[in-house]
Amino acid sequence: MKKSEGLMAILLYKWLWTIAAMLIVPNSSAETASTLHPVYVSVTDVNHNVTDKTIEISCKIFTDDFEKGIAETLKKRVDLIKPANQEEANRLVNEYIVKHLNITADGKPLKLEFVGFEHERDVIWSYFQVSNLPDPPKKLAVKNNILYETYESQINMMHVTVGGKRKSYKVSNPQADMVFEF
Q: Is residue 32 located within the same domain as residue 56?
């Protein structure tokens, strides 16, 4: 698939969300439709791996939104679908996420180690880990302001799993702080 076809697919997908919202909203009309906007959302999964004594983190962000966020925040244009320079793309993805996702475990800041990223359909999955975490954390505090500087209506969802217990939380711009207790 060509990049232009991929971009069209992404835009179509996002606008389908808008149409779905129109169908759900009572008394919607063409005038209402012009005020609706696509959904801006990211999903971050945080899992404590007891066997490896690590925390595994994955962030799922729409490709076009992520590229725009990187361009606006880091002042660098990047094609995350077919990067001309994979090393530079890795650096930019890492720099952006580390700047916008902060996690503390039991009061201690965690250092996110970049593992990599991949493109899947219309999203980018970026992967991080935190090594040498011998005990499952009792409390995780998270600040997640991914794409807040780019989209006023950005929503960030978090799913955290520790000791087999999964907890979820959603924040909307400007709220960015969450606490998960296990």
A: no
Instruction: Report the SS3 class of residue 147.
Output: coil
**Number of separate domains in the chain:** 2
Tokens 């720099």 identify what position? 95
Rounded-to-integer distance, Cα 101 and Cα 95, Å = 10
Sheet containing 108-109: order of strands: 108-109, 101-105, 139-144, 177-181
Give residue-wise pLDDT tens across range 48-106. Answer: 999 999 999 999 999 999 999 999 999 999 999 999 999 999 999 999 999 999 999 99
Q: 123 and 176: one domain?
A: yes
- d(CA 70, CA 73) in angstroms, rounded, equals 5
Which positions ≥6 away from 76 have C-beta within 8 Å? 70, 88, 92
